[in-house]
Amino acid sequence: MISKGKEKEVLDKRIMAARQSAGFSITEAAQKLGFKNYQTLSAIEKGARNINAHELIMMARLYGRSLDYFLESDVAPDPVPLWRKARKTDVNQIQRQFLSFLENYSNLEHLLGLKRRWKDVQKNYDRDDFSVNGFEQADKLGAEIHNFLDLGSRPSFNLLNVLENKLRFKVLHLSLKVGVSGASVVDNTIGVGILINVNDAPWRRNFDLAHELFHIITWNVFSPEEIGNGTTKTKPEQYADIFASSLLLPEAHLLDTLKETATDNEIRVIDIIELAKEFGVSTEAVFWRLVNLKKLKKSQAQRVLDNPKFRDLDRNMRRRLYSKDRPSKFPSRFISLACRCLLEGKISRGTFAEYLEIDRAEIDDYLEAAGFVEVNYAKIAAA
Predict the structure, then answer these.
(1) Is residue 240 located within the same domain as residue 302?
(2) Which residues of 249-277 are buried (b: 16+ CB within 10 A; e: fewer)?
(3) Residue 195 is inside which H or E element, if any?
(4) Are 155 and 146 within 8 A, CB to CB?
(5) Cα–Cα nearest to 305, from 319, 315, 318
(6) What is this structure's pTM?
(7) CA angle in degrees (0–180, nearest 5) for 140-146-152
(8) What is the DSSP string of 213-263?
(9) CB 193, CB 184: distance < 8 Å
(10) Domain presence at residue 326
(11) Is the domain of 342 the same as that of 316?
(12) What secondary structure does DSSP assign to 196-208, as a single string?
């Protein structure tokens, strides 16, 4: 049992705070923890009943917290992610799962002595950069970041890998509710995190990734109140869309491909779909990019986009791509770091299983499937 005293008072408060932060009602949490009724959990939170170690471990797992969170006297407040198209009531449990992943990832980097690189992309942008012509600046910024990251002629197919491995962003793919696009967060302790809805089409995920990149680059420029929750197109949200379009559809590469695709110097409906497929974006993104580049009129783009037959054609031509290359929940880099930490004795098998959300009995098979067996991990030479 956890003994009474000042530590017990801290523990009681943390247990309640962890449940509320994770978005569980006391009845829901009690059921998931295996208590016969909610009064048992209520008594624990009020300090009227002691909690044993097993129960505390169960709570830590359910609420997405480390044991240190409950036992240390001083704990920093959670960073607040920037959510897109989400109500507060929809995201509490997901937010804690997201932050727990970032905390675990950050711990692995720390144990291996890896440096953070995400600040390389955060130059000294301020409000003045967007005060005169924010849309033009967002477009210019997209082109600059495309060149800086060396994303090539088809950025959508390189962006995730570059962000994860060059800048060491932490990208988590989760199954989210309809209408919840994802989130991003910047924090000096856990680094940069992006949450993507794995249920979205590949081109939607690509655009959301680029959209969140803008918010990360301009994290200290616009306040959360200015940005909003993604349900309305505030100025910063519009800037993020312009940035994403410029980043994923670089002008020179897009126009060169358009010349090769279109015949007789005429742009056809099928050409737009082919361009969207080739660049890994939505047809809507291609239309508005061509409007901004003055290759189409706004009225022309809107007329086609409003046509149900076009939407059906677009959907049918890209249907098979919906399930293609569906990303795994955890990034390969996160898995690799966890394997390295385990084999180097920096984390326990229990921690490894907890981080990767597997049973302890599965660890050896998991390591083998990932290629991290002793023979492959043997040293060859000094780097």
Answers:
(1) no
(2) bbeebbeebbeeebeeeebeeebbbbbbb
(3) strand 191-197
(4) yes
(5) 315
(6) 0.88
(7) 140
(8) HHHHHTTTTS-HHHH-SSSS--HHHHHHHHHHHHHHS-HHHHHHHHHHHSB
(9) yes
(10) no
(11) no
(12) EETTS-HHHHHHH
Interacting residues of 24 by C-beta distance below 8 A, sequence separation 6+: 32, 62, 63, 93
Is residue 77 in a domain? no
b/e code 367-379 from CB counts within 10 Å (16+ = b): beeeebeeeeeee
Tell whether 377 is covered by a domain: no
Judge if 235 and 364 occupy the same domain.
Answer: no
Structural domain range at position 61: 6-71
1-40 burial, b if ≥16 CB within 10 A, otherwise e? ebeeeeeeebbbebbbbbbebbbbebeebbeebebeeeeb
- Give the separation between CA 190 and CA 108, rounded to whole angstroms: 11
Q: Is residue 378 part of a domain?
A: no
Residues 6+ apart with CB under 8 A from 139: 242, 243, 245, 246, 292
For the domain that residue 115 is a member of, what is the CATH number?
A: 1.10.10.2910
Answer yes or no: do 267 and 291 share one domain.
yes
Query: Splitting the chain (383 residues) into consecutive groups of 10 residues, what average pLDDT does each group show?
Result: 63 86 89 91 89 88 85 81 73 88 95 86 78 91 95 96 94 87 91 94 94 94 87 90 97 94 85 93 96 94 94 84 76 95 94 94 93 74 65
CA-to-CA separations, 129 to 108, 186, 239, in angstroms, rounded: 37, 21, 12
